Amino acid sequence: EAQVTQNPRYLITVTGKKLTVTCSQNMNHEYMSWYRQDPGLGLRQIYYSMNVEVTDKGDVPEGYKVSRKEKRNFPLILESPSPNQTSLYFCASSPRDESYEQYFGPGTRLTVT
Amino acid sequence: AQSVAQPEDQVNVAEGNPLTVKCTYSVSGNPYLFWYVQYPNRGLQFLLKYITGDNLVKGSYGFEAEFNKSQTSFHLKKPSALVSDSALYFCAVRDIRTGGFKTIFGAGTRLFVKA
Question: How far apart are the C-alpha atoms of B13 and B65, rounded to whole Å?
Fold first, then answer.
C-alpha cells in the first residue's frame, strides 16, 4: 500500500530534550515536506526537500532541523524543544513536478511542557 | 507575497443542500491550486486540483471546484451535501516561483452538515 508513515504518533516531552520525528514514504517520491498545524493558522511549511541531500526552509523553520540522506526518509529534528513547538505535525510527499498533489502522513501530536 | 484566504471559519449546511467552501488566492503568475480534506484524527487527503484547462474541475466524493481568474477564487462545491462530508477543508497553492516546492495553505474551513 502506498503510504507515508510517521513515528511516533503522539509524544509528550519536556523543554530542551532533543527529539526526532521520523517520516518515511514508499512511493519513490522526490519531494518531501514537513508542516505544522495550529488552530486558526492552517498548515505552515517548516522545511521541504526536493531530493536526497537537497533541503530548504519553509515559512517557519526556526527551531527545527531536517536531513535527507535517503530518498524514502525525511526526519524532523527538534534540538531543544520549547512549549511554542507544541503542535500537530504532518509529513508529506509527492513526485517532483509541482502539478502533483501531496500525500500526507497521519500526523504526530507533540506536546512540550 | 503569495497567500491563500479562506474567509469562513465554519460553514453549516443541511444534508441534501448544495455547499460552497470559499477560497481566494494571491499569486504571481499562473497558480497551481489544490483542495484537501481532513477528517478527525487523520492526515490530509487530496480532493482536487486546478493546473490548467477547464475552469471547472471535478474531484473525489462528488466535489468540484471552479477556478475564476478574474476574481482570483477557487471555491469548492458539491450539489448535495452528505453528513459524512463534515470535515475540515483546506485550500492550498504551490508557489511556482520556487519551482512549486513551497506550498501555502489557507487557515481551513470547518464544514458541518446537519441531518
Answer: 17
- Across the A:B interface, residue pairs with CB atoms under 8 Å apart total 65
Per residue in A33-70, pLDDT tens? 999 999 989 999 999 998 999 999 999 999 999 999 99
What gap in Å lies between CA B69 and CA B24, rounded to an integer? 10
**Nearest-angstrom CA–CA distance, A99 and B32:** 7
* Residue B65 grid cell: 471546484
* Residue B110 main-chain phi, psi, to 5 deg: -90, 125
Q: How far, CA to CA in Å, does B58 sit from each of A21, A75, B55, B79, B114?
A: 35, 34, 10, 12, 24
Q: Which residues of A touch B96 (CB under 8 A)?
A: 98
Quote the cell numbers at residue A16. 530542551
State how far the alpha carbon of A103 is from the alpha carbons of A88, A100, B25, in Å.
16, 10, 22
CB contact under 8 A, B99 and A98: yes
Give tens-digit pLDDT for B14-62: 999 999 999 999 987 778 999 999 998 888 999 999 988 899 999 999 9
